[in-house]
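Thread: quick sanity check before group meeting

JM: Hey all, I'm pulling together slides for Thursday and realized we never actually wrote out the predicted structure for the chain we discussed last week. Dropping the sequence here so it's in one place. If anyone has concerns about the input, flag it before I start.
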Amino acid sequence: MTAAQGNGGSPSARPTLALLHTVLSLPPVFAALAGELTPGTELFHIVDESLLNVTRKTGALTAVTRRRVLGYLESAAEAGADLVLVTCSSIGPAVDAAGDFIPVPVLRVDEPMADKAVRLGMRVGVIATLATTLEPTAALVERRAVVAGKSVVVESRVCRGAFEALQAGDRDRHDELVREGLRELVADVDVIVLAQASMARVVDALPEDELTVPILSSPRLGVTRAAEVLSSLAAAAPAPQG
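JM (edit): ok, ran it. Output follows.
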């Protein structure tokens, strides 16, 4: 686990965004998006790959993992975060359960993506490289559809072997398997959501003739929502005295 506070622990009037990751490569991706979409915001990252590793090996969120997620969210709030953005869909249910116990807003990175998918179509494809990520994302889409008062059909697809290829450092094989999964799914749905942020670059490289339906990824949509929440919090804050 690593943590690095963007403001060095010094007091600041600028809003502070904490990001909880389970993949070591994601902090630079989200730092770049935050710099673009919410400039001036202080950032710090908490990274613990074991949260995802345990969930993948056990096939479900354990009670210990749920408590650890809660602990990280509490630590982020204690460190001065005004908002916590969790970038891993596999631990999403633990985030939902912990939110009521944290004194600052907590946002799942995949929730804005699910909301947009529900707006765009009634047949929603969900694609992932891990079953432990696929199931929470599909459940989230169904739940957000209920909130929106819509009925959707969710088609789920796991790109088997892709996650293992990425872990082994074979990015080309990972990307090939994800592309194959997208090609198989695209004819059956109105919109596709990528259940993992690491899949987003595959879509960026697809030729236009394969982009026959919208394909949504979570990082940009999640950070955009985070920027909106931080702006709302700033607007609601009392004016400084004196």
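AS: nice. The chain has a mean pLDDT of 89. The radius of gyration is 18 Å.
JM: adding both to the slides.
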